[in-house]
Design goal:
4 domains; seven-stranded mixed beta sheet; 18 strands; elongated; L-fuculose-1-phosphate Aldolase; alpha/beta; 25 helices; Rossmann fold
């Protein structure tokens, strides 16, 4: 591990102590082997004037749940130092009182709630205090004889603190121990099964003490490494249908759709192939802080997915019953990650961010577990009772609640939208993203990549009339998100008008290929995964021409009529699996690339009316926009239409010919 400190960069952050605190905090946050996603905390002690102009001792402490990697001054809570020190002298303080009193010391009540380690930072007399959950240090403490190993690495350079519940209890323990020594002779504190503190009156020296001490732990582990034979994984056959089934089973248990991010890296595959996998993977997490994200252990996927997940849920209920004191409500029993023997690890989350965070934690945990097992004589995490206390600790749960979100209609769902580079398809993608879905847009137009990127979706350039390309795009979607729930089949073209007797055959063939066959191909390769989806729904985009065709539009109208029949057949075939298939029939949607200002003017003149009158040429005298169709399709893919299948829904403002 190397120091990232750069004097020029440090100066750009500013010269104040708080500026330097922000800079060195970001350096710590930039290294995932030190802290992950809101983990760790830092502080700086300063003298500044309060509201009344009196100079007072203030500690700027990282706000609870703030991320060191991106933190700014606003992420720190300025607290009066005196009251925190006074609180540390008390024999006992409840969690709620500690939180309330910490907030009462704040000079800026718009700042975030101070870290639960605020009192610990206060009692360490140095100006700068850094705390991380460094992988290497925690790996050492989680190994058999961890205390002896720490002594072997550091000697008297650090003080070892036995595991104590974070917060006030930890502050009291540290206060008791540092009161008996000259802390100026120490470089840091090692908290068993928890992490490491370093400190100094200069930001750079406190930061570089962290780097130096963690590097010593890394060097020690490397020195104990031995060559480990790993079973070959190169020929493992990918099982995407199995992944979709796992995702659905976990989603059903959790009560909401989740993404399932599979990791098939060499490290993850090696872990999933371990002979003692069941024993090793279920000994506990890297640090107790991780348990609020990952639960205590993963689910191990066996040959029967449902049995495996159900067993996990039963075991979790027993774990809760054994350790609960009777005044708690059990959290949902669904696993947050899985080990799939021979296939890798899987991280679950109701949002992409949640799943990514779990995945990052799992990656570091798997690495630490294997290092401890291979180099240090084994892996021994905290006992279940200690981990339970953290998992159900109000102060830890509050970190999640800070970033909690109201589930949107399609939260955690995966959607594919074809023909989404512009017009109705793009509007559908936008509506689905807004409703919480992870959207993959498919289109022949290369603009699909940038258009999807702008709305927070994924774009793939695909010729939807080429079966291999369609199949590949669906498999890539399932591989990326773990499954597929919603398919909006929208791709289409309006072929040049021609009466049947005058029609060029290529006109007919192209319309059938794009307006009908491409939809059949998309359904063919999507349906196997949508059957294993969450509230699976297919929505096809037809046309008013199905029910009110016009002369000279035979190739377009017949293809759309065939598409409508395809929808009806799909509704019949998929109903036994709980999958719905419906179709919308838009009309006169003019805010697309097909309709230029000149084309609208020509059409309006042909009828002898204004452009605005032409746009609202329906019974409700209202303009139909792409967004209107997008909102309707998003609704049809959700619970509002949860008991509707095989339906044809017009979005046309009322057409007298259709009615």
């Amino acid at each position: 591990m190397k120091s990232l400190w750069n004097n020029d960069e440090a100066k750009r952050f500013g010269r104040s102590l708080v500026d330097q605190r922000v800079y060195s905090s970001r350096l710590l946050g930039a290294n995932a082997h030190l802290v992950l996603h809101g983990g760790g905390n830092t502080s700086v002690k300063v003298k500044q004037k309060d509201f009344y102009g009196e100079r007072t001792d203030v500690i700027y402490i990282k706000g609870s749940g703030c991320d060191l990697a991106t933190i700014g001054k606003e992420g720190f809570s300025p607290c009066r130092l005196g009251p925190l020190l006074q609180m540390s002298e008390m024999e006992s303080v409840s969690d709620s009182d500690m939180t309330a009193q910490c907030r009462a010391t704040m000079l800026d009540h718009a700042a975030p709630t101070p870290s639960i380690e605020a009192i610990v930072h206060a009692i360490i007399p140095h100006r700068f205090v850094d705390h991380t959950h460094a992988d290497a240090v925690v790996t050492l403490t989680n190994a058999p004889g961890g205390r002896n190993k720490i002594n072997e690495v550091y000697g008297n350079r650090v003080m070892i603190i036995p595991y104590v519940m974070p917060g006030f209890a930890l502050a009291r323990e540290i206060l008791k121990r540092i009161s008996c020594v000259d802390i100026s002779k120490l470089e840091g504190l090692i908290l068993m099964n928890h992490g490491i503190f370093t400190f100094h009156d200069e930001a750079r020296k406190s930061y570089e003490s962290m780097i130096r001490l963690v590097s010593l732990a890394e060097k020690y582990i490397r020195g104990k490494s031995r060559k480990v034979e790993v079973r070959a994984t190169a020929k493992v056959k990918e099982d995407l249908p199995g992944l979709a089934l796992i995702r659905r089973t976990v989603s059903q248990l959790r009560g909401s759709a989740v993404y399932a991010f599979i990791n098939r890296s060499p490290q993850a595959l090696a872990f999933s192939n371990l002979k003692n996998l069941k024993s090793l993977a279920t000994r506990g997490p890297l640090t107790p802080d991780h348990v609020i994200r990952t639960k205590r252990i993963p689910v191990i996927i066996g040959s029967n997915v449902k049995e495996s997940v159900d067993r996990f849920a039963r075991d979790y209920a027993l774990y809760f019953k054994k350790h609960s004191k009777g005044d708690l409500i059990m959290l949902d029993p669904a696993p947050r990650w899985a080990v799939w023997p021979g296939q890798g690890t899987i991280a679950f989350g109701t949002t992409r961010r949640d799943a990514e965070i779990v995945g990052d934690i799992v990656d570091h945990s798997v690495d630490a577990i294997q290092q401890a097992e291979n180099c240090l004589g084994g892996w021994r995490a905290l006992p279940a009772s200690k981990l339970f206390d953290i998992e159900y600790w109000d102060l830890e749960q509050a970190k999640l609640l800070q970033h909690d979100h109201q589930l949107t209609p399609h939260q955690g769902k995966v959607a594919v939208v074809s023909g989404s580079a512009a017009g109705i398809g793009l509007a559908c993608a936008k509506a689905l993203v807004k409703s919480g879905a992870a959207v993959v847009g498919l289109d022949l137009n290369p603009d699909i990549v940038s258009e999807m990127q702008m709305i927070g979706a994924t774009g793939k350039v695909v010729n939807l009339t080429e079966e291999k390309q369609v199949m590949k795009s669906i498999e890539e979607t399932v591989r990326e998100f773990g499954g597929l729930d919603i398919v909006v089949s929208n791709a289409g073209i309006f072929t040049a008008g021609a009466y049947l007797e005058d029609m060029d055959q290529s006109n007919w063939d192209k319309s059938i290929a794009v307006n009908l066959t491409s939809h059949q191909l998309l359904l063919k390769h999507s349906i196997p995964y949508v059957k294993s989806g969450i509230d699976g729904a297919l929505v096809l985009v037809g046309s008013r021409n199905v029910n009110a065709p016009g002369a000279g539009a035979g190739s377009y109208s017949c293809a759309k009529a065939g598409l409508t029949q395809l929808c009806r057949v799909a509704a019949l075939e998929l109903a036994p699996f709980g999958v719905r298939c419906n179709i919308v029939h838009p009309d006169a949607v003019f805010d697309t690339k097909l309709w230029t200002t000149e084309a609208l003017q020509r059409s309006a003149q042909r009828y002898g009316i204004t452009v605005e009158e032409y746009k609202t040429r329906n019974l409700l005298k209202t303009e139909i926009k792409s967004a209107d169709v997008g909102v309707m399709i998003s609704a049809m893919a959700g619970a509002l239409f949860g008991k509707t299948t095989g339906a044809q829904v017009p979005v046309d403002g009322g057409n007298d010919r259709v009615i």
